[in-house]
Design brief:
By secondary structure, the protein is mostly helical. The longest helix is centred in the first third of the chain and has 22 residues.
Length: about 130
């Protein structure tokens, strides 16, 4: 939670360079750690069983490339560049009980429109094209 789920917000709402960097680096260190965990072929973070940890991480992963990468300046890598995290996210997204709950148009509108300190002109970007939608 602290470095990924909340890390994107710490970076995105930072008003000083040092605060931004203090959030940015642990965020990507933690994504690298998750990438390493998933590299052993497991289906989920804790093995072969879907847990709350997967769902909590998924909510951030689904928003990452479309929102956090650009809007919150979490732009070291896009998730589509992670060999294990990206397929993990797509697999979870495509579960029957997840996919119908994800509305990227609503997600993008909320983030880009409701944070005037980050996006004062409230411009909602058209992209990126997400191959999993």
């Amino acid at each position: 939670y602290d470095t990924i789920n909340n890390g994107v917000y710490k970076a995105g709402f930072a008003t000083k360079q040092s605060v931004y960097e203090d959030a940015f680096n642990p965020l990507f260190d933690s994504l690298d750690w998750i990438e390493d965990i998933l590299s052993d072929g497991r289906q989920y973070l804790c093995g072969d069983v879907l847990t709350e940890a997967d769902i909590r991480l998924l909510t951030t992963l689904l928003r990452f490339d479309a929102v956090y990468h650009t809007h919150f300046m979490c732009n070291k890598h896009q998730l589509r560049g992670y060999k294990h995290i990206h397929p993990y996210m797509v697999r979870l997204y495509n579960m029957d009980f997840v996919k119908p709950t994800v509305h990227m148009d609503h997600i993008k509108h909320h983030y880009y429109y409701s944070h005037p300190s980050v996006n004062p002109n409230q411009i909602i970007p058209i992209g990126p094209k997400l191959d999993w939608l």
